Amino acid sequence: VKIAQQPTGKTFSDVEKSDWFADAVAYVTDKGLMNGTGSDTFSPNASTTRGMLMTVLARYAGTDTTGSKPWYQKGMEWAKANGVSDGTAPNANITREQLVTMLYRYAKSTGKDVSVGEDTNILSYTDATTVSQYAIPAMQWACGAGIVNGANGKLNPQNNATRAEVAAI
After folding, report:
1. Global pTM value
2. Among candidates 32, 68, 57, 16, which has minimal Cα distance to 166?
3. From the CB of residue 67, how many other CB atoms can be counted at a distance below 10 Å?
4. β-strand partners of 47
5. 3-state secondary structure the chain
6. Which residues contact 132 (CB under 8 A, 6 or more apart)?
7. How many C-beta atoms lie closer than 10 Å to residue 31's C-beta?
8. Distance in angstroms (rounded) separating the CA atoms of residues 125 and 159
């Protein structure tokens, strides 16, 4: 018997109800996908590490990541076992293109249709040519599926993904 998790209703001093990411932060914290960074902070503008994303995706897939030593170990093992990541550099900040690539791989591993990106033209973004070769199919999928919309006509693939962006995506 699966018991529905009750919303925590947790609030953070650094997340205002009017922030574009407020609903996303409430969702990921209520579902136990992400935690705060302190007793009452979420740090929405802080960079996300590769280990954080591996752990979030593992939790989303239903993996219990509690008691992991180091804290990202179970998430990293899950990511490697499921072809989502090679598990390297868990403490390194994750770029936006690495983020969508892990999401793309996760979607494929769960049998989701990722063909929406095959015909998506990302060349309308002024920095489309800066997307790494390995990340092009994932970025096309993310744009085609409406997961990534860009900012000011740019994809910013090499920029670090913030915690707010990860929560929203």
Report:
1. 0.88
2. 57
3. 8
4. 162
5. CCCCCCCCCCCCCCCCCCCCCHHHHHHHHHCCCCCCCCCCCCCCCCECEHHHHHHHHHHHCCCCCCCCCCCCHHHHHHHHHCCCCCCCCCCCECEHHHHHHHHHHHHHHCCCCCHHHCCCCCCCCCCHHHCCHHHHHHHHHHHHCCCCCCECCECCCCCECEHHHHHHC
6. 97, 157
7. 13
8. 15
Task: pLDDT tens for the chain, 169 residues: list them.
Answer: 444 444 456 789 999 999 999 999 999 999 999 999 988 999 999 999 999 999 999 999 999 999 999 999 999 999 999 999 999 999 999 999 999 999 999 999 999 999 988 888 999 999 999 999 999 999 999 999 999 988 889 999 999 999 999 999 8
CA angle 118–166–152, rounded 5-degree value: 65
Task: Give the Cα separation of 7 and 32 in Å (integer).
Answer: 9
Q: What is the dihedral of CA 124, 19, 8, 51, to 10 degrees?
A: 50
- Cβ neighbours for 4, distance < 8 A, ≥ 6 positions apart: none
